[in-house]
Every structure is written in C-alpha cells, then in structure tokens.
Amino acid sequence: MHLNDPWTQQLSRRGLLLAAAAGTIGTFLPKWTPLQIASPDPEVASAAFMYCNLGTGEVIRRGVAVPRSQYVVGGGQIGPGLPNKLQSVLPFGGADIGSNTLPQGLDWHGSSAPKTLLAADGSSIRWRGRNTTSRYSGGVRTRLEVAAPGESILVSFKARITEVVGHREAALMVSLLRTTDSTSTTLERVYTARDQSFERCVVRLTAPPGGTSGWKLVFTGEAGDGAPDQQATFEIRDLMVTAGGAPSPWLGERYAAPPYAPTGYVGGDVVVDPKLASSEFYLVARTLEFGWIGVPVEVSAQSPRISFSEVFGPDACITVAEFYLVARSRWQSGWISKLAGASTWMPMRFTNIDGIAGKSRPESQARLSRASGMVAGHSIPAGTTARSMTPSLDAPPETWAASFDSSRWSYISFRVDKAPFIGETTVPAGVRSEVHVPNCLDYDRPYWFSFAFRVNTTVHDAVYTRKVVLFQTRYTKNASADSSALGPELALEQLPGDRFAVSYRTDDGVPVLAGSGTPAGITTRTLGPWYAPRGRWQNLVIRANYSRSGGGELGVWLNGATLINAAVPLGYNRANGPKVRFGAYKFSDYPATTEFQNFEFGPKELSGRILRPLAV
C-alpha cells in the first residue's frame, strides 16, 4: 500500500471531511471495548468494497460476511508503545486532606502562595490556590524527573478551573523545573477558566541542554491580573508524560500524544489485505479520539496491504473503531457528514502548535488558544517539502477541513467569534483561526496560488482600518537582532462594508528590523478595494515572485479579470522567505466566518485556473 499520488478526479466540497466524534476524547481502554454500533450504514456499506468493525470483529467484503482473520489483523490501537513516565506513582495514592498532604509523587510548588488540597483519587487531584505577592497562585510539581537535559516530552492531561474569585481569566500554566538550581523553562499558558471543563490538552516541552540534572514537571495557577488575593480551584486528571521524540511530520503533534494510561500506551497496528492486484480506495475510518478521517490509498502488486500506521504515520497514536474501504469511483459527496451525524467536534487544545519545541506564540486575554481543525498530512500541496499543515494557536472549534488529493485542500472553513475585551483598546487584539505551512518560500522563484473563497459575515466596524486577513504570506523574522512585527508582504483582506483588497509590501531591499505594522522604510501598495456581497464565492489566482533586494513580480486575477500582472517591488530583506497562511485573522469587533475551496499553491504554473477555476 502507498498513499496516492496527485490525481485529477474532481470531487464536490465537504467529501472527506475530518468530522466530529461523539464520546470522550482520549479514553484508553486496556482491553478493547467496542462502542455500541448496531450495524454499518446501509448506503455506505452497499457501496463499500469492505467494512470492518474492530470491536465486534464483523468484516463484510463485497457484501458478504467473511472471517476477519483472513483480511484484517490488529485490535484497533495504532502507534508505538509509549510508557507513561509517571507510571511508578500511578494510580495516585497516599493523599491526606486533613494534613494538606499531596499524593505520592507530587509536591507543592510556590512557597509564598497558599494552597489547599481539596480532593485526590487515583487519576486526579484538585486544589485551591490564592495569589499574594505576584499573579501566580502556586501549584504542584512531580517529584520525579520527567525529562533529561535536551529531551523533548509530550504532556497530556485534562483540566478544569472553577470557583474563580477575582479576575475571571484565571489560568493554568505548565513548565519544567530543575530543582538543583531552581531554573525554570518559560511558563506556557495552557488552560483558562473559560475553557471547556476537562478538555484534553497536549503540550510539548523541551528541557534545555547541558548539565546532568533532570527536570520536573510543574503546574502553576495564575490569576487573571496582578491584584492580590485572587482565588481559584484547579483540577487535573489523566496526566500522562511520554517521550516526545521529533515533532511528528505526518498528521501533526496531537496525533502523537497517546490516550491516557497509567502504565503506558500499548500501541500496535491494523493491517488490511484486500486481496486485490491493484485498486484505488478511500480509507474512511472512525477513530475514538478524532472522529471520522478519510484518506485516499492505493494497493498494488508491490504494496498489496494497507497498514494504518503507514497511512497515519509511525508516530500517530489513535484508536480505530471501524472503517470502510470504498472505491473512489463509488464515493458520494456528503457520506462523511452522514456517518458523523449531528455530533459536534470536541476540540483538543494544543500549545506551541507550530511544532517548535519549547516555544508558543504569546497569548493575550483575547485569545482562546484552541486548535481543533485538522488537515491530513498527505494533502500537503505539491511543491512543498513539509508533511504537516496545522491550525495555528487560535483556531477555534468551528474550524474543519476536507482534503481529497495531494495538491489541494478541497474545503476548509474558519470561524472567529467576537473576542473578549475587544473595545477596550483603540485597535482590537488580533484573533486568528488560520492554517499555515511551516516551510519558507524561496526568494526569486515564482509561486502560484489558486483558491475560491467566500465570507459569510460583514465587517461592521466604522473604522476603515478594521479588517480580516483571509490569506497572507507572512515574512520570517531573522533569528537574532530582529524585533520587528511588520505586516505581511502579500495579503488578501476583507474590509468594512463587504469590500476586499489585496495589499503587497516591500522594504526596497533595506532591512527594517524594528517597528510594528508599516513603519518607516516599508512601502504598502493596494489593489482595490472591490465590492462583493457576503455569501458569494470569488476565485483568486496569484503569481508572486518575492525578492530580498527590492525587486519582484506580482500577478493577481480575480474571477478571471486581471488586477495586476507586472514587475513590482515585493518582499522583505530577510534570511528566509515568507510562509503561507490562510483563514481568518480578525482585527474587528465583529465575528468572522470564512470558507475556502480548492486551495492550491506551489511552483507549478496555475495560469489555467484564471479562466477555468475548479468547480465549487
């Protein structure tokens, strides 16, 4: 089996959507316990070459029940075996509320902040914290060292913050601590009081290199502001720490964090033998952690079997409950939505979502730091080398995606609600729901972009500068001596009153390494604005050639009409080229909802899309 190469069959929107799963996220069942499924969906099953329920053992091939052992091997758990680094102290025990004694394996953290143990059982702990001289209300830390110098770990847990007294934005932060010299890594804000109770959170932490002493895991409570005597109740459950290894290049970091198990994740694989010489399928699987996922696969004489660990990546830890193999020619639009039913996507939060170990983009109180939209890694556009396409830190639960081949995303939607605290400042805090490609574009090399987009909300702000950035190529800051926060070199923007514009910028080859927005030395030029009513699909094709020396080229075609096609200054003088982002990056007091279809980009020429765009 191998993942399919780019193919040209045109499919309608929302086909293989990464849809919702009903049930609890991240539940680990040491002995497989199937969900109660009466039967496969009759319509989908009748078109499927094969259906398998890994809980009941039912396998239907070409409409006939067959022995599972002849066609499917594996119990449903996918991924490498990963021990829980805290297994020696789990389940928690030895706590005593009367003496304020924590369970074995945990110590109080933050001597100046009063902390009171409220409850503890085998998998959870609940305490009340109060801040005094700083905004931190103390917390708990592991007695065990969970990371060696230079080691990367994945920490997964569920949390809840209740009974907040004071500012409503109480938060939970996580870090690593070397107790031999009280050195701490940067505190990562991972959970706030307004987040969904017991939502699963995954954090990648990397211990600094050097020395011989290990690092302990710390959970710290944080008050909403600096005022003293604020209180909150914090609860953590299902804590699992595993070796992080390298960031997963396939389906993203969140797939690499195994579901909770006190001792460790067993792992495994599911291997399907269709017993065919060759064929092209959709593998449509329901996972307990992420819902329905659709992946195009092929079998051939050279690769006759389908290995789920190969499909989803060797580091992916997921549990498959059932799956269909459907020939591509027999797949019908809307079947994934039909299979998923009316259930709602349950988000899993992730800090440092960009995959940079030990680093996350700074948050403001207006940012919810949720990430739940997913795009399968094999759908990375042709011409790029990265295998990951991940939502940025602020993608809210409404983000979802569908992908059909290796050269485009067929459908993805973004929603950004009105952010808290907006209106207290002259310029609203930016709130984003975007996906981005982590690789930089090259300078002096033409890139083509083609996509259809529509917005379903209006920017009602009276201030003209309020906007929603829908597409951008964002410059890459230099590794050192670069404190700038400049606007993107190229951006598609939604403006007040259902108007749109394309802006592009240059520094004329002279680096501007400080300042925000468009400081002195940055020249901005604008195409438009043009008017389009909300709800209308628009087709955009762009050809961009970025330059660090003040040159460049830009072609922009809107619905077949030429906006520009000329040599123009485009790009900033930086060590590395810009990165691609699209979605909804909102600088507005109002919600934003945006949809994209058939997003393609790369060095391959897409001029044919100008007059013949892909159907929506």
TrEMBL record:
UniProt keyword terms in alphabetical order: Lyase
Q: Which Gene Ontology molecular function entries are recorded, alphabetically? A: lyase activity
The answer to whether the entry has keyword Disulfide bond is no
Would the keyword Lyase be found if you checked this record's keyword annotation?
yes
Name used for this protein in its record: Polysaccharide lyase-like protein
In its UniProt entry, the species of origin is given as: Agrococcus jenensis
